[in-house]
Design a protein that fits this description.
25% helix, 3 helices, three-stranded antiparallel sheet, alpha+beta
Length: 99
């Protein structure tokens, strides 16, 4: 799947009154997001997947093994199932959310 960076959102359509608190992305932030997107799209294999439990860490996992054995990934199970190949930590918090 190819992810496409979206234009800044139209905050006038939000259903809460915090529009004045939400600032548009700066040029530096936009450039950083573009580099991140380019890096993620350049992944050299379909084996790698990324999971998080909602902190500043992304776990790099072996997605082929996870799918082959139908292994659970949420709530730390990627680590318990021995799927973590590497860990990437950064400055921004990565919120683990689901619908």
């Amino acid at each position: 799947m190819t992810w496409i960076a979206h234009e800044p959102h139209d905050f006038t359509k939000l259903d809460f009154d915090r529009r004045e608190e939400i600032k548009p992305l700066s040029k530096r932030e936009i450039a950083w997001i573009a580099r991140l997107q380019k890096t993620l799209q350049a992944c050299p294999t379909k084996r790698i997947a990324l999971v998080t439990t909602g902190d500043k860490r992304l776990d790099v996992i072996d997605d082929k093994i996870a799918k082959k054995y139908h292994l659970e990934l949420c709530d730390g199970y990627a680590e318990l199932n021995g799927l973590i190949l590497s860990v990437v930590e950064g400055t921004p918090t990565i919120h683990g959310v689901s619908g």
